[in-house]
């Protein structure tokens, strides 16, 4: 279970940062930054991948009420411009900047899930599999995942063909079939190979774009 071991080694206030949505074919990449309260940390915080949707929703509501939370969102069009790596780095930066507005002061240290850091001015430490180790990063993973899933449920109403209510934009079989049958929506990441192939198919091009 994640703990506050790493947080206690850093200059307070310590924020955990994680992202959701690097792999999907559609929708934004979302990052969250969370500073947990000194008292009243919600019970049950864990890596969002180990929690069901209802538990994530419960913890999300508690974190919004008790913690200081920032969110950064980069949409599909910008993902195509920057590439998914740099779009993720931008989303993380936006999340910490949003967190500082909530905090009303500067963050002391940032713990980031993964092995790379954005090019920013914050004192920060990358932690591989941090969402399973750091309680702050685990909290951020819950906020990021719940935020993105909620956005995709809304988009599913506008674009019902793709099954986003269940696959959240990932490359599930029903999503890939809909891409072939209906082509991409405005929310698809055209730089991702299955979406690019669907675009080529609509234009009557072969698999190599010829």
What does this structure look like?
The protein has 210 residues and is of the alpha/beta class. 42% of the residues lie in helices and 14% in strands. Strands 3-2-1-4-5 form a 5-stranded mixed β-sheet. The protein is elongated, with a radius of gyration of 18 Å. Mean pLDDT is 95; it is low at 206-210.
The overall pLDDT, averaged over residues, is: 95
Q: What is the ordering of alpha helices and beta strands?
A: EEHEHHEEHHHH
- Coarse structural class: alpha/beta
> What spatial form do the alpha-carbon principal axes imply?
elongated
Summarize the helices and strands and which ones pair or pack.
Elements: E1 14-20, E2 29-35, H1 53-66, E3 68-74, H2 76-82, H3 84-103, E4 109-113, E5 124-127, H4 135-158, H5 164-167, H6 173-182, H7 193-202
Parallel strand pairs: 1-4, 4-5
Antiparallel strand pairs: 1-2, 2-3
Keywords:
210 residues, 7 helices, 5 strands, 5-stranded mixed β-sheet, Nucleotidyltransferase, domain 5
Task: Characterize this entry briefly.
This protein has seven helices and five strands, in the order E-E-H-E-H-H-E-E-H-H-H-H. The protein is an alpha/beta fold and 210 residues long.
